[in-house]
Amino acid sequence: MFNFKNILVTGGAGFIGSNLIKHISENYKYSNILSIDNYSSGKTKNHIIKKNIKYLKLDCQNIFQSKNNIFKKFDPNYIFHFGEFSRVVPSFKKKEDCFNFNIKGTLNIINYALKKKSNLIYSASSMHLGGRENENLSPYAWTKAKNVELIKNFSKWFGLKYFILYFYNVYGENQIKATYMSSVIGIFEFQYERNKKLTVVKPGNQRRDFTHVDDIVKGAALCAIKGIKKEYQLGSGRSYSILKVAKMFKHKIKMINKRRGEKFTGNANYLQAKKDLGYTPIKSLDKYIKAFIRKSRKVRASGS
Fold it and tell me: Taking the model in full, what pTM does it have?
């Protein structure tokens, strides 16, 4: 039975995790929320200051060594596991981080969910959908695919309760802009704000489904409340070429060489999520970019 009394969010100071905490705290007022984050990409500025929300600096790899009483005594009804290494291209250079965070860290969270008899909601990636070829495109895609397999097996072997959510190119408030962990929209925003050319990977006609973070976290919460199937795709259902997205910024563009590990196309089928959860994406990418441009121009005009 659905119960949002106690919720654990891994990566709660990061992009999607912080937005999830905001959504739950605003819409489910009797929830106690605990965030754990190692702050490798999470930020304290993403914290929401409320008495029912607590933040701990804790790596998923070390949760069973933690002596923090708040964590040890917390009994979550739901664990939203969003605290993983989450980028394709950097996973080649940061392969140790990718494997440690996504394999060792996630195994710990799975065992923790079993110990606490919690419902695990795992943020899978659309990168590995489409068969073995896509699973093996990058260390990131491989680890995400193996974690999905591991979760399903732990359900068969040990009775793990779970849902798996597939995310599609999430963008919006609190997204990372200035590091190697940035997504394409974050990269474009960073370059636009500094009046640099937007870098588009050749050939430019590769397509992606872009989903606003507000729609993603709403879908994640609805999954906990209404989920029937074990897996749901959460996307916008509309794909754009990367070049078309860059042109939406009405800015200078620079084509750069193709990179390893990236799929050519990706488009969400959220019909099952719509049927079971009532999930319907509302936010559109073009309106978001137009609003971003207006805001950036005001900032420039004010000289701040």
Answer: 0.94
